[in-house]
């Protein structure tokens, strides 16, 4: 496993992190909690030390499962969670008001069973609350020893500029993969310049970049991936399949899974600290971790880039 320092923090995190959206049980289909715990523990045993979660994943369920999994292993993990997506009056809403954040911090500490959260992130922007109010509250939580570092997620360049003028931000969590490269235009260059670490979610394009799909999948009613990710719809589906074929050829060359090629492309991008990857079984966690045991050559990176430009123009 390779490790990198997260932005300007003191946190050393694995270049492959474990994302826990899937284990919340409310978006990616049914989950078994005992298997989820075993999956998290296998990830830790394989050298993955970054576990990213959020109260929004199953209305606190993912955090509780993570808390169970890390009992006796707290010193081996960097725990990242989030705030700002809450259930109010039976509906999900964005709320980054200071009083809401104070409640969320305490609830996350309890569910996770920890004394301090290593990285506390704004999950999504809340246009109804001044960002200054939100960040000033997060600084208070940091100064009180409840959280160690402040991060943000799903912020554009303008919001990043505003946030960094108010408080020290060590990380940004955007969607970033070979299928979604929007941040390369202005967000990624800004983060590189400011020394802000990138924790990329959607690293495998909701599973498309694993190469496991031979045709467009039909998801169960409780699996809403295709509503969140556009890759399952035309014309992006055909383009993705064409790109995956290029990854498959490289995978054959190096005798590695297709997913490893996609993850290595991502973790080898300048400015990317860690690729967050979900796993629902111990075997998946082990395979994800193994992708950090080797790296693509420059020639292979160039081949992927050339194919991307040809396919996506």
Briefly note the structural class of the backbone: alpha/beta
Number of helices: 11
Binned, the helix content reads 25-40%
CATH fold field value: TIM Barrel
Low-confidence stretches: none
CATH class: Alpha Beta
SSE pattern, N- to C-terminal: EEEHEHEEEHEHEHEHEHHHEHH
Tell me the total number of β-strands. 12
The Rg value, from CA coordinates, equals 19 Å
End-to-end separation in angstroms reads: 34 Å
The strand line-up of the biggest sheet is 3-4-5-8-9-10-11-12
The fraction of residues in strands falls at 15-25%
- Quickly give the CATH architecture: Alpha-Beta Barrel
Quick one: CATH superfamily? NADP-dependent oxidoreductase domain
Key phrases:
313 residues; alpha/beta; TIM Barrel; 8-stranded parallel barrel; two-stranded antiparallel sheet
Q: Would you give an account of this structure?
A:
With 313 residues, the protein is α/β, with parallel strands linked by helices. It has a single domain (3-208, 270-294), classed as TIM Barrel. Helices cover 40% and strands 17% of the residues. It has helices spanning 33-45, 61-69, 98-112, 131-143, 157-166, 187-194, 225-228, 236-254, 258-267, 282-290, 298-312; strands at residues 3-5, 12-14, 16-19, 50-52, 78-83, 85-88, 91-94, 117-122, 147-153, 171-173, 197-200, 272-278. The chain has an 8-stranded parallel barrel, surrounded by 5 helices. Helix 1 (33-45) links the parallel strand 3 and strand 4. Helix 1 crosses helix 2, helix 8 crosses helix 9 and helix 8 (236-254) runs antiparallel to helix 11. It is globular. It starts with a strand and ends with a helix. The mean pLDDT is 95.
């Amino acid at each position: 496993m390779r490790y990198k320092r997260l932005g300007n923090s003191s946190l050393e995190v694995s270049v492959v992190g474990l994302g826990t959206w899937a284990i919340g049980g409310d978006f990616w289909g049914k989950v078994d909690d005992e298997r989820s715990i075993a999956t998290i523990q296998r990830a830790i045993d394989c050298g993955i030390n970054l576990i990213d979660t959020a109260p929004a994943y199953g209305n606190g369920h993912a955090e509780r499962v993570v808390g169970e999994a890390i009992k006796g292993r707290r010193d081996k993990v960097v725990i990242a969670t989030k705030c700002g997506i809450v259930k109010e009056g039976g509906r999900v809403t964005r709320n980054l008001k200071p009083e809401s954040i104070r409640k969320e911090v305490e609830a996350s500490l309890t569910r996770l069973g920890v004394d301090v959260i290593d990285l506390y992130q704004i999950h999504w922007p809340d246009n109804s609350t001044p960002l200054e109010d939100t960040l000033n509250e997060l600084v208070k939580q940091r100064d009180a020893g409840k959280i160690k570092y402040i991060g943000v997620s799903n912020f554009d360049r303008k919001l990043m500029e505003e946030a960094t003028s108010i408080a020290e931000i060590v990380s940004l969590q955007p969607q970033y993969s070979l299928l979604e490269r929007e941040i390369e235009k202005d967000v990624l260059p800004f983060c590189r310049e400011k020394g802000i670490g990138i924790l990329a979610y959607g690293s495998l394009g909701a599973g498309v970049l694993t190469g496991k799909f031979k045709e467009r999948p039909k998801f169960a009613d409780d699996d809403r991936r295709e509503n969140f990710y556009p890759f399952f719809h035309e014309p992006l589906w055909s383009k993705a399949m064409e790109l995956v074929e290029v990854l498959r050829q490289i995978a054959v060359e190096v005798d590695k899974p297709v997913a490893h090629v996609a993850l290595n492309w991502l973790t080898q991008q300048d400015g990317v600290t860690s690729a967050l990857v979900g796993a629902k079984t111990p075997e998946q966690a082990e395979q994800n971790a193994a992708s950090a045991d080797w790296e693509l050559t420059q020639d292979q990176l160039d081949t992927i880039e050339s194919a991307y430009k040809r396919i996506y123009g």
